[in-house]
Specification:
Blueprint lengths: L1 H11 L21 H4 L32 H5 L6 E3 L2 E2 L2 H12 L6 H8 L11 E4 L4 H7 L3 H13 L8 E3 L11 H7 L4 E3 L9 E9 L3 H12 L4 E9 L2
Helix pairs in contact: 5-7
Length: 241
């Protein structure tokens, strides 16, 4: 029945794939054909056990499974672990752009499903939390893409969703405009926790769309740990490498 409905909807409201231009006839996968979507494949090979950065060598962890990347050794992040299943490139990069900047929020479900590909790698957590937007940016964008992803992940994991404890208290420049050093300065002390008692000894899963330098999630983790969170695990859809 769903396949018949997809066919009918395609003929009534035709949509072409944003990548190849062929018909995108699956209503569960808007704006992309199945062939293009299936080119999105998870990161393979060894990754830093702290920040999730892929190592260049396929045997990087063969003799030292706990070996961290240089950045984590020199300045350990405040979060306990970060996972990003995919590289920010190709079809996925285009999908994130449509989702985030062109308000194609129907992509939230298929993108969240991609994130859940690594759910078996997550440590035990108590609640799911999105990286918040500043109120001014939320008014401009009209939705928080991280909240839409976090909501679906929380429901799939059967965990509570917290979107009020962590808030962005300082408006900052878009991180995409800055280099690594300026990104860290840009978001420093930009986040605060409301009602710290609700986070005491809780294990938080922090959700965002893209991880680049980790500056944003690192500052979020700093605020959460100061508020008494027992641990902070970061899960993002993609990372720039």
């Amino acid at each position: 029945m769903p396949d018949i409905l997809d066919t009918i909807l395609h003929w009534v409201f035709p949509v072409d794939c944003a990548v190849c231009g062929h018909p995108a006839a699956d209503r569960r996968l808007p704006f992309f054909c199945r062939a293009c979507w299936e080119t999105i494949t998870p990161i393979e090979g060894p990754i830093c056990p702290h920040c999730g950065q892929p190592f260049d060598s396929p045997i990087a962890l063969a003799y030292s499974p706990g070996h961290r990347c240089r950045a984590c050794r020199e300045k350990p992040p405040r979060f306990d672990r970060a996972l990003s299943p995919y590289r920010h490139e190709g079809v996925l990069e285009q999908a994130i752009r449509l989702f985030k900047y062109r308000r194609k929020d129907t992509l939230a479900a298929p993108l969240a499903n991609l994130m859940l590909a690594w759910v078996d790698r997550l440590p035990p957590v108590d609640l799911v939390m999105p990286v918040p937007l500043h109120p001014s940016r939320l008014r401009t964008r009209e939705f928080n893409q991280s909240l839409l992803l976090a909501d679906r992940i929380a429901r799939r994991l059967g965990l509570p969703l917290s979107f009020e404890h962590l808030e962005r208290i300082r408006e900052t420049r878009p991180q995409t405009e800055l280099d690594r050093a300026d990104r860290a300065k840009n978001v420093r002390r930009a986040f605060a926790v409301r009602d710290p008692d609700g986070l005491k000894d809780r294990r938080v899963l922090l959700v965002d769309d893209v991880l680049t330098t980790g500056a944003t999630v690192n500052d979020c983790a700093r605020a959460l740990r100061r508020a008494g969170a027992a641990s902070v695990t970061v899960l993002t859809l993609a990372r720039r490498v």
